[in-house]
Specification:
Layout: E1 4-16, H1 24-36, H2 44-47, E2 48-60, E3 64-68, H3 75-82, E4 90-95, E5 99-102, H4 115-125, H5 130-144, H6 159-171, E6 177-181, H7 189-204, E7 208-212, H8 216-222, E8 225-230, E9 233-239, H9 240-257, E10 263-272, E11 275-276, E12 279-281, E13 285-294, E14 298-308, E15 314-319, H10 321-325, E16 328-330, E17 335-343, E18 349-359, E19 364-369, E20 375-378
Parallel strand pairs: 3-7, 3-8, 5-6, 6-7, 12-20
Antiparallel strand pairs: 1-2, 1-4, 8-9, 10-11, 10-13, 13-17, 14-15, 14-16, 14-18, 18-19, 18-20
Helix pairs in contact: 4-5, 4-6, 5-6, 6-7
């Protein structure tokens, strides 16, 4: 048996933009309008849109393979071609074994049927037999966490409940190849962890997982190899850390090439003591280097640093001016370099340092770089949420047979008092 689970060879996928006319009644007004607008009647080439162009790669059996790239890169189209929802315009693809696609969870649910009935319906759509579903039914329901609602019509389910049931069914198809498209944000933290653990179990059993996500941390943690897609083209394929680094560099280069402001943020680097870094342990120090280039004279500037979480909520912000360095003036051709030192008292997750140049006197941003970098923070403690309070259980007791007031407790392991007198804002301090 071949060790290749799937292969794409020179695959192209074409769509057509704009209107299509199915009747003479619709076609005549459209042609008349184009004549008066002096447009060409033959615009076939202009209306063609190539979502995928010359895609070639292969994935080994038992491998977790990530697909990343900006919105509109063609990631979901690629999965739909692999799952045979769409046919490629040109090229060939080979998939060895049974395929299960977790692309649009619950898309096959009937709203008037119960969760139990939809489990059988959706399982059949995914290729399971009635007997297979019956054998795995209790396991599917337990995995979804919807035991008490399984006989309720799904029209009364929340979107999260629909997605959880959809994932639970799709994940128990026992596929040889599992295609996953940005679905691991469903449910609470425990359910997301259960999803990841289940996919790892699928891989351990010899199956292959293709994983599409904008969450680069999850891709980095889960996938050994990855592919970067942009505008339908394969940019690079290789080990996941190298592909992610290439992606971040690519984004910075695109931004630098499109800047025409009088003063711009030309470079942002996040590093640890050893050099540029994207993965940090909670509580450790990080340094953020910012470079600003002036094309024209400018004054009264401050460099603003802020952090967003995965939901783009601002967790923290500060500025060079609020930290006591006054305002900045630059002449044409000047380059400013400044470094922020912070302690990453963040919980386990993905975070986006962002930078802007701001004039507080007129409340105007001269340049903004959202998500200038992506960092992944892991915590040794089992915590969730954006903040890590470094918890410890210092007392736990059970009083048998009688009520009793607990004694006062004094917390141990205090990390020291706040040493900073700097002005920051947001729900947490990064020191």
């Amino acid at each position: 048996m071949s060790d290749v689970a799937l292969r794409m060879e020179h695959v192209y996928k074409r769509f057509r933009k704009g209107e299509t006319f199915n009747s003479l009644r619709d076609l005549i007004p459209a042609l008349t309008g184009r004549m008066f607008r002096q447009q060409e009647l033959s615009e076939t080439d202009k209306r063609e849109f190539w979502a995928l162009q010359d895609i070639s790669f292969e994935v080994k059996r038992g491998e977790a393979f990530g697909i990343i790239g900006p919105n509109g890169a063609g990631k979901s189209t690629m999965l739909k071609v692999l799952s045979r929802v769409m046919k490629p315009t040109r090229g060939s693809l080979h998939v060895n074994g049974r395929v299960s696609a977790l692309i649009e969870l619950g898309a096959g649910f009937h709203q008037d049927l119960t969760g139990r009935e939809n489990t059988y319906l959706y399982g059949s759509i995914l290729g399971m037999t009635k007997r297979e579903i019956a054998v795995k039914f209790d396991e599917i329901v337990e995995f979804s966490g919807l035991t008490e609602f399984i006989d309720t019509p799904v029209k009364h389910y929340s979107s999260g409940m629909n997605a959880r049931l959809g994932f639970a069914v799709g994940a128990h198809v026992n596929p040889d190849v599992l295609l996953v498209d940005e679905v691991l944000s469903v449910g609470d933290t425990l359910f997301q962890r259960r999803c990841m653990d289940h996919m790892r179990k699928i891989i351990q059993n010899g199956a292959t997982v293709l994983f599409v996500s904008h969450n680069l941390k999850t891709v980095a943690d889960f996938c050994s190899h990855a592919l970067l897609l942009d505008h339908g083209h394969v940019v690079t394929v290789g080990s996941t850390p190298k592909v992610i680094t290439h992606y971040m560099t690519h984004l910075r280069q695109d931004r630098a090439a499109n800047q025409s402001r009088p003063v711009v943020i030309s470079k942002v680097t996040v590093r640890d003591a050893a050099g540029p870094c994207h993965r940090f342990r909670s509580g450790h120090k990080a340094w953020i280097d910012v470079e600003v280039s002036a094309r024209e004279p400018c004054s009264k500037l401050a460099v603003v640093l802020y952090f967003r979480d995965e939901n783009h909520y601002v967790l923290f912000s500060t500025t060079t001016e609020r930290l006591g360095y006054g305002t900045i003036s630059l002449n044409s051709g000047d380059i400013l370099r400044c470094t922020f030192e912070i302690e990453l008292n963040l919980g386990h997750g993905v975070f986006y340092p962002a930078v802007n140049l701001y004039r507080h006197d007129i409340e105007q941003a001269e340049d903004v770089w959202e998500a200038a970098e992506t960092i992944y923070v892991w915590a040794q403690e089992d915590v969730s949420g954006p903040v890590n309070f470094f918890p410890k259980v210092i007392r736990q007791e059970v009083c048998r047979g009688r009520l009793r007031e607990a004694d006062d407790c004094t917390a141990h392991g205090h990390r020291g008092q706040d040493r900073s007198t700097a002005t920051t804002s947001g729900p947490l301090r990064l020191n």
